[in-house]
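Re: adenosine-5'-triphosphate structure - here you go.
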Amino acid sequence: MEPQQRRVGLVPLSPSHTARSGDKLARDLRPADSSSSGHSKSDKDKGVNVQVLVRCRPLGEDEARLNTPIVISCNEGRREVSAVQSIANKQIDRTFAFDKVFGPNSKQKELFEQAMSPIVNEVLEGYNCTIFAYGQTGTGKTYTMEGGARKKNGEFPSDAGVIPRAVKQIFDILESQTAEYSMKVTFLELYNEEITDLLAPEETLKFVDDKSKKPIALMEDGKGGVFVRGLEEEVVCTADEIYKILEKGSAKRRTAETLLNKQSSRSHSIFSITIHIKECTPEGEEMIKCGKLNLVDLAGSENISRSGAREGRAREAGEINKSLLTLGRVINALVEHSGHVPYRDSKLTRLLRDSLGGKTKTCIVATISPSIHCLDETLSTLDYAHRAKNIKNKPEINQKMVKSALIKDLYSEIDRLKQEVYAAREKNGIYIPRDRHLQEEAEKKAMVEKIERMEQEAESKDKQLMELQELYNRQQLLTVELSDKLEKTEKSLEETEQSLFELEEKHTQANATIKEKEFLIFNLLKSEKTLVEQAIELRSDLKNAASDVSNLFSTIERKDKIAEGNRLLIQKFQSQLAQQLEDLHKAVAASVMQQEQQLKAMEQDMHSFVSTKAEAIENLRVQVGKLKNMYGSGIRVLDNLAEELKGNNQLKFGELNSEVAKHSSALEDLFKGIALEANSLLKDLQTSLQKQEAKLTDYARQQEAAHARAVENTRAVSKITMNFFETLHMHASNLIQIVEESQCTNDQKLYELQKKFEECTAFEEKQMLEKVAEMLASSSSRKKKLVQMAVNDLRESANTKISKLRQETLTMQDSTSSIKAQWKIHMEKSESNYHEDTSAVESGKNDLVKVLQHCRKKAELGAQQWRNAQECILSQEKRNAASVDTIIRGGMEANNLVRARFSGAASTTLEDAEIANKDIKSSIEHSLQLDRDACGNI
Ligand SMILES: Nc1ncnc2c1ncn2[C@@H]1O[C@H](COP(=O)(O)OP(=O)(O)OP(=O)(O)O)[C@@H](O)[C@H]1O
């Protein structure tokens, strides 16, 4: 029997309607202390931003193998995600800040505890909360929401996602508070803008595939909310039940193969958990607190062209995009506070209306990949998520309900369902209860009336619009006429203005002409006056000119007389010039004669100068020859000195060489002695080491024997241990058999219990149609009895099993004690072997110590010999130093002597050079004097 209870009904998604369903609520309430948490109204007033966190998955195995470059870095501390890429001239470097950031190494547990756990707590406080997973296909939306492997063998898997962890936390808290609560879950899929119930029984699903069946409908409740009619709600009592439901629903999720991800989920899924918790007011009134958690796994956000979906799936992709696009538009409208928010454009946004800008607390997990190949999609996801951060919701705690009112509500719901079941059984053509049919008909009628009314209103509005249009047209015509008139008037005004302007211009021109004429007359009068004055002046000038002309004639006469005088003068000058030229010719001839005589005298002087000069040069040549001889002798002296020095040095080097040869032979002898001693020492050492080697070989043989013994012993022990383990294995298989048997019996008993329970429930259902309230009490007592019986049975069988177990344990104890005895014998044997080995090791150690002492003595002897050799070398070195010192001293003295002689020879040479220099100087001066004399003569 399935522990959860199923019902089909109207499932509201808005907070105000969560309490409409839940027929098992009253039965599933558990005993508990009620604890209500306080609620501040500040959130309600201010509005709370949607919490956005980003999770980056690690590289997949294939990506890591191909060394795919990573372009995303997450700074969890600074809550930042950076995308950095530079290829050729394209440079991307963008950083986004979020409420929380989880890097590739983040664990499921961390993400849940840091970001999701507080949200779950708020659900238990009575809030409605929604968690979205948004991102490209394959970035880990489903991994984050649902996680890896399911719960196995009672262990909670470490990679369990948000949903199983949230469920666990809810149950843990409720159990710890021992609260009275009831819980129900729904799981739907939105695919091609069609809703599918993932919790519907198989038959219904088959029916859904049939085109004749209407898909599950999304209905307006007339109060701004929506509900999904016909959605299955499962009442759950344990976390395990939810895990099973989740697994069942996930398996049904439709997936389509795309080029990006073969397992890619192409649909949106919404998993909702609604919790009712009983609380008691101080006045003792029982209240029901309600909270809801929506967990939404969206389809991959990548665009359709990249996803590679074609033909048949084109519509699917389009519809998925329609929902995601509308989600984007809704986010944009909310962020930009534009008046119209297009919630109604897609089913996804209609369903999640309250989570986007409504009274729900919302958290968006944006999942991204670090790979370079997904960079474009990653950036668009980050942009999308970053924008969503600015959405403000106004979270409100759901109103608590009085328990009695809730029960009343539930009764009426039961009645309605009963009628539905009755109608379905009857199959009278109306597959819904008559009342509901009538109610729907009435609603439809009301709607039609409303539409008609609206149409009438629209018509009257149209009429008004037409009238207004006519009025407007008339006004337009009038305006056109008036504007024509205005135009004409404006034109005539313009013409008048133009002629006025022209007249004014003419007037100013006439004024100007008059002024000009006046000015001309004035000027004419003035010039007439000036002409008269000038005529008077001209007359006087004429008189003056006549007197001037007579003067001029007298001047011309004087000029003629002067010209005559000039001609006479020129003739006189000509004759004088001829006389003077003749005199000059004579003087020049005399001067040429004189010059010739002077040149002859100069020639004689030059001859005498050349002969004197030749004499002086001869003198100079003699002096230079002397000087050359002198330098030659000086250099020869120096050569002799150098020869002497060379001889000296060779002598000294010969001495030094013989000394060194003597020393080296002495050293050679010394080293030969030392080498002989060292050889004998080494031989000694070798013989002692050979002895030691022989001893060590003996010792190794002893050790080998000991090890062989130890191996033998270990084999014996392993045999014993094998026997022990075989016995253990036998007992363990016995135990497994016992456990399996007990499990079979338990299963059998549980099956019987389930059967009985089902029968009882069926019977009770019949009874409850009449007396639901009384039956509740009696049924619970009956169930208690039933359960008690089953528990007693289980206890009995458990007791028999335990006695069998005890028997097995005793047998095991026996075998353990026998093994203990064997082990003791083995230990004793091992101990004696150990002692033997230890003594052998001890004797080997003593031998080694002796050999070491011997070696140490030898080494000391060697060290003493080396010290002696060192002393010998030192004394030899001292002797060498002394002899080299005396040789060098002798050399130095000889050198000093040669130096003194050398400086004497140098000073005599210098004196000689001084005298020769003086001679040269005097002969040069003499030559110069001669030159000067010659110059004076010339
Ligand atoms: N944070 C993570 N750590 C380790 N593995 C991860 C992580 N996120 C995702 N994966 C692995 O990456 C693969 C794809 O993840 P998943 O199916 O959850 O992606 P998705 O976004 O839900 O894809 P789809 O849109 O197709 O549903 C899975 O094999 C999953 O195990």
